[in-house]
Amino acid sequence: MLSRRGKPHPQALRDRVFAYSDGGMQAGNIAKVLLVSESYVSKVLSRRRLIGETAARPQRCHVTPKLAGHMAAIEARIEAHSDATLAELRDWLAAEHTISASLGLLSKTLRALNLTLKKRHSMPQSRSAPASRPSARTGASVSRHSTRRS
């Protein structure tokens, strides 16, 4: 069983540890069967024995997001200026709220708010030519070299 960094093991795995333990299997054998560390198995079993907990505890030591106190202001700014770029939003935060934020942080914050923002200014196309070649006329030869004689 593969673990995910920063996430607790699934409850189903814990339940299997308890079932094997209740069946009389030793912690080392449980670890080998479930492909987890022996340390994990012993911690899960000792927590159940000492405290009675069978579920994962909530994760601790989370850092509060830097822009958490400004989410409402950012949302209001985007409502008012929906065509702003991330760089313009960053400049606005620096001027109005004296906060420095990277473009990545702003992007992550907007994802947390379920908002999208343009990545660059509105501007004309980079060239005046059409983006794709026109399709051939019906009945026209597909190859560049015709096999017909004129």
Strand content: under 5%
Reported for the largest beta sheet, the result is: none
Structural class: mainly alpha
Distance between the termini: 72 Å
Number of helices: 6
CATH topology of the largest domain: Arc Repressor Mutant, subunit A
- Shape summary: elongated
CATH secondary-structure class of the largest domain: Mainly Alpha
The H-level CATH homologous superfamily of the largest domain, spelled out, is Winged helix-like DNA-binding domain superfamily/Winged helix DNA-binding domain
What is the H/E string? HHHHHH
Indicate the mean pLDDT: 82
Whole-number count of domains: 2
The helicity comes to: 40-55%
From the alpha carbons, calculate the radius of gyration and give it in angstroms.
30 Å
**CATH architectural grouping of the largest domain:** Orthogonal Bundle
Mind explaining what this structure looks like?
The structure is a single chain. By secondary structure, this protein is mostly helical. The protein folds into two domains: 1-60, Arc Repressor Mutant, subunit A; 68-112. The protein is built from six helices and no strands. The protein has helices at 11-22, 27-34, 38-50, 71-80, 86-97, 103-112. Helix 1 packs across helix 2 (27-34) and helix 2 packs across helix 3. The chain is elongated. The mean pLDDT is 82.
